Amino acid sequence: MSIQLLKEHIENTGLSQAKAAAQLGYSATAVNQYLKGAYKGDVAAIDKAVAELAERYRSKQKDVAAGFVPTPTANRILEICGLAHDMSDIYLVIGEAGLGKTMALKEYAARKSNVVMMEVDPTFTAKVMLQELCALLGITPAKNSHAMMTAVIDKLKGSDRLLIVDEAELLSYKPLEILRRIHDKTDCAIVLAGMPRLRANLRGARGEYKQLFSRVGLELDIKTRLPAGDINMFCESALGTDTFNQRLYEVSKGNARRLNKLLRGVRRIAVINNTDVNEAIIERFAEMLID
């Protein structure tokens, strides 16, 4: 019975045996033998681990967070991406964390086949960024930055692609300048998205990066709080009711990321207690949210 449970888990999740083994806390060899019915160790222990893993998966399936919600703010981000794409220009999407920028950008990338989306990490130097671009474009990275930049330019030239760069405020001047040159040489559209300091990074501390900032065509500046209408749409999509909209807006403080944590939390507590979401659950979870 447990062997079948594990086979179903692997099939439903698309995991490899090695990754399923990691979830169970066993070696890949042990799990392979277990699935063949040839495991010589403590079979009851693996049976127990499999049952718990299957139950966690079923529980999480009941608590899948709502996907993309076409709020007015999200639609404005989709619009700016479309404009940049059509105009082959460099545009900015600026906003504090938790306003739904990334989800909207990913939605645009999912809708269009000729979009490349790069999510920047704090470790991104100019060379690392070029290596990431090569990987996204299916190019074998070269040993030096110049060769990689040349390959990226050759790949993008005439491609009518849009490059979306999320968390772009983490990029220093050199990587940003490389993106400008890629745009100039390929006419490839670019959307740079990030926190408000991205704008300052593009200008320079004393406005010395005029050549860089002058390439920016338009800027969408999302305010520090999402409007109540956006929050209401998120709430109704997740809960199927507008009963708690006002309180959820107050607790989330207009922050989409905070709201997502709140909605997931209250739905999870409701599932655990086999009940519907109610005001008591919302207040209980709201007390645990970190400001």
> In DSSP terms, counting alpha (H) and pi (I) runs of 4 or more, how many helices?
15
Mean pLDDT: 88
How much helix, percentage-wise, in residues? 55-70%
Order of helices and strands: HHHHHEHEHHEHEHHEHHHH
How far apart the termini lie comes to: 46 Å
Biggest pleated sheet = 5 strands, parallel
Spatial order of the strands in the main sheet?
Answer: 2-3-4-1-5
Q: Which structural class matches the secondary elements?
A: alpha/beta
β-strand percent reads: 5-15%
**Radius of gyration using CA atoms only:** 24 Å
Any idea what the shape is?
A: flat
Q: List how many beta strands DSSP finds.
A: 5
Short summary:
The chain has 291 residues and is α/β, with parallel strands linked by helices. It has helices at residues 2-13, 17-24, 28-35, 43-61, 72-87, 101-111, 126-137, 145-156, 173-186, 197-203, 210-213, 228-239, 245-252, 256-272, 279-286, and strands spanning 90-94, 115-119, 162-166, 189-194, 216-221. The chain has a 5-stranded parallel β-sheet with strand order 2-3-4-1-5, sandwiched between helices.
What does this structure look like?
- The chain has 291 residues and is α/β, with parallel strands linked by helices.
- It is 58% helix and 9% strand.
- The chain has helices spanning 2-13, 17-24, 28-35, 43-61, 72-87, 101-111, 126-137, 145-156, 173-186, 197-203, 210-213, 228-239, 245-252, 256-272, 279-286; strands at residues 90-94, 115-119, 162-166, 189-194, 216-221.
- A 5-stranded parallel β-sheet has the order 2-3-4-1-5, with helices on both faces.
- Strand 3 (162-166), helix 9 and strand 4 form a beta-alpha-beta unit.
- Helix 7 (126-137) runs parallel beside helix 8, helix 12 (228-239) packs across helix 13 (245-252) and helix 13 (245-252) crosses helix 14.
- The protein is flat, with a radius of gyration of 24 Å.
- The two termini are 46 Å apart.
- The mean pLDDT is 88.
